[in-house]
Amino acid sequence: MKRILPLFAIILFFNLSFSQNSETNGTTLEEYNYMISGYEMQISSGLDLKSGYKVDNIDSITKSNYSFSFNAFVRTKQNKLAGILIIAKSEVSGRTYYLGMPIHNTQLQKSFENDVKNWDERMTTAFAQALGELYSKQAILNYKEANKTE
Length: 150
What we know:
Layout: H1 4-20, H2 29-44, E1 53-63, E2 66-75, E3 80-90, E4 96-102, H3 106-117, H4 121-147
Antiparallel strand pairs: 1-2, 2-3, 3-4
Helix pairs in contact: 1-4
Signal peptide: 1-19
Keywords: Signal
Protein name: Curli production assembly/transport component CsgE
């Protein structure tokens, strides 16, 4: 339990950071389900992305035997963030996980947190480190932009 609390603190701050920097109506259940299962099915089948959406890579971070690709799942019509699609790969188990980090949806946030809780301690630790690194990079960019510094 102790190892999970810092992770969820980082997730909360990360989620708030993205939600404050974007205007959004919140992630819908349909969008969340697409991020956690529909995206994988369409990509593995060679099909196009869900109509009305695009996926933009934010960053990819590797921590020991785990890699995490953070992607903006965007509603193209409004050009607004619908959620964060996270593709997590474990070199230890050989598994790939598709997660949806919802925006402005407390119920779906709990589902996201439960998905992460199912990982072993090494993977959750690597994920917390990756989130911390990503959040740090974003904070630096925001500071530079706000203060016009290099």
